[in-house]
């Protein structure tokens, strides 16, 4: 047990200082981004190098059904080997005892990474960058809603009651008063994040009723994806303490803006330590334009990953703080690809397409994959867009089926992410889409029942 304690990151050691560790949650992200795994006594965890879970956890749809994704040998549910990454060990401060969470990596019996495990997909893409002498850096932004408890799916989602006793107000972007309405929840988010050793760059009120945004500091893509994975859980737990729900749906309330996971990218030359997007005199480099070109060329095919559910496509609406095309512009939030104001060292490219409902490992992997293909193929971006991009043509898929068609045709993207991942992902998402098409909506009953 002493060896275990000494291997923990500093924040986890501080959390347990003077206390007895009771339990360890051994977890892995499935395709939707849900934590799967098992909880074991700390004494047992200290003695085990790995544990087993069936690979079928990656063949489940969001509804819990199964996609026919096992492959040529059929659905036999092989055990995977799950090995802990102790650098991810962190507190679970909402539990009743002293518990840690540890993210595990998934391997087959030959010790090869499971290709459709989301964390492995992202590691694969990062490794491709490293082989070129490049170090990708990302900074995700997380938007979400705090809403009233919704226990009946037939009922529309309502804003939560704020501290004032009134429902959360919309159209109050960046209002500190609006942030204060959720003070107790935000206090717990900060406390949980501190216990877990996470650094929040800031929390702001967004445009929707009860919509907040958390920004994270830039860093290693896998580490940041781990943090988003953890953050979604801790935010939900903080909300439940205050009799409300936190939701990461892309479009939970029809009249309100959707929730995005904007991803900022830069690439560092590993030999010189300089930003690949900036030249010696501070100007924009060919690599900068090639990266943007890769996003423009491949993001339509990657949309099925960045917008993984039928609800995701309700977010792409003109004039509702979400992109409708792949225009790029400097300091222009109407474009799908934005270049924020910055000096040469911090020059970066922001992908505004990803929804907060995407799996953070897969969303970051897909976005980096598009940029990587641009760098490798050296396809230069078109001219920057000036003005309101909502006045330009829509270019993004409008429904899940169309997005899957584009994804399934994108062989170059499959090779970067891994062909087996692309196969499994496509089958699972087709299964979900077909399940959705069996549901008759209130709109259909209202307007078609007696009128057609």
UniProtKB/TrEMBL annotation:
GS catalytic domain: residues covered: 118-452
Coiled coil: none
Gene3D superfamilies hit by this protein: Glutamine synthetase, N-terminal domain, Glutamine synthetase/guanido kinase, catalytic domain
UniProt entry tagged with the keyword Ribonucleoprotein: no
Entry-linked Pfam families: Gln-synt_C
Cofactor annotation: Mg(2+)
Keywords: Ligase, Magnesium
Membrane spanning stretches: none
Signal sequence segment: none
Protein family according to the UniProt entry: Belongs to the glutamine synthetase family.
Annotated protein name in UniProt: Glutamine synthetase
């Amino acid at each position: 047990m002493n060896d275990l304690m000494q291997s923990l990151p500093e924040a986890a050691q501080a959390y347990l200082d003077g206390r007895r560790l009771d339990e360890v949650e051994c977890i892995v992200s499935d395709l939707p981004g849900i934590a799967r795994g098992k909880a074991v006594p700390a004494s047992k965890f200290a003695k085990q190098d790995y544990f087993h879970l069936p690979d079928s956890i990656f063949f489940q749809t969001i509804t819990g059904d199964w996609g026919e994704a096992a492959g040529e040998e059929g659905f036999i549910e092989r055990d995977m080997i799950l090995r802990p990454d102790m650098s991810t060990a962190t507190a679970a401060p909402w539990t009743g005892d002293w518990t840690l969470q540890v993210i595990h990596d998934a391997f087959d019996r030959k010790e090869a990474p499971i290709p459709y495990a989301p964390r492995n997909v992202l590691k694969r893409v990062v490794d491709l960058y490293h082989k070129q002498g490049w170090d990708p850096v990302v900074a995700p932004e997380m938007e979400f809603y705090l809403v009233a408890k919704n226990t009946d799916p037939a009922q529309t989602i309502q804003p939560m009651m704020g501290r004032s006793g009134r429902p959360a107000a919309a159209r109050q972007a960046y209002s500190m008063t609006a942030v204060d309405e959720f003070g107790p929840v935000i206090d717990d988010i900060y406390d949980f994040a501190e216990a877990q050793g996470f650094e929040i760059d800031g929390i702001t009120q967004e445009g929707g009723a009860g919509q907040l945004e958390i920004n994270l500091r830039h860093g290693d893509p896998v580490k940041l994806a781990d943090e988003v994975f953890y953050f979604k859980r801790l935010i939900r737990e903080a909300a439940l303490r205050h009799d409300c729900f936190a939701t990461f749906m892309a479009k939970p309330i029809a009249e309100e803006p959707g929730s995005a996971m904007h991803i900022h990218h830069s690439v560092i030359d590993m030999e010189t330590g300089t930003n690949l997007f900036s030249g010696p005199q501070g100007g924009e480099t060919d690599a900068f334009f090639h990266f943007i070109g890769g996003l423009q060329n491949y993001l339509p095919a990657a949309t099925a990953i960045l917008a993984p559910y039928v609800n995701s496509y309700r977010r792409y609406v003109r004039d509702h703080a979400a992109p409708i095309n792949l225009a790029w512009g400097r300091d222009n939030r109407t474009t799908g690809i934005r270049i924020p104001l910055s000096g040469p060292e911090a020059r970066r490219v922001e992908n505004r397409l990803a929804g907060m409902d995407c799996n953070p490992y897969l969303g970051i992997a897909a976005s980096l994959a598009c940029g990587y293909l641009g760098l490798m193929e050296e396809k230069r971006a078109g001219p920057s867009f000036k003005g309101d991009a909502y006045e330009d043509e829509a270019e993004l898929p409008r429904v899940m089926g169309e997005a899957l068609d584009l994804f399934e045709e994108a062989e170059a993207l499959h090779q970067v992410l891994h062909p087996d991942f692309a196969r499994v992902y496509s089958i699972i998402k087709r299964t979900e889409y077909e399940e959705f098409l069996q549901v008759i909506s209130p709109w259909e009953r209202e307007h078609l029942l007696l009128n057609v």
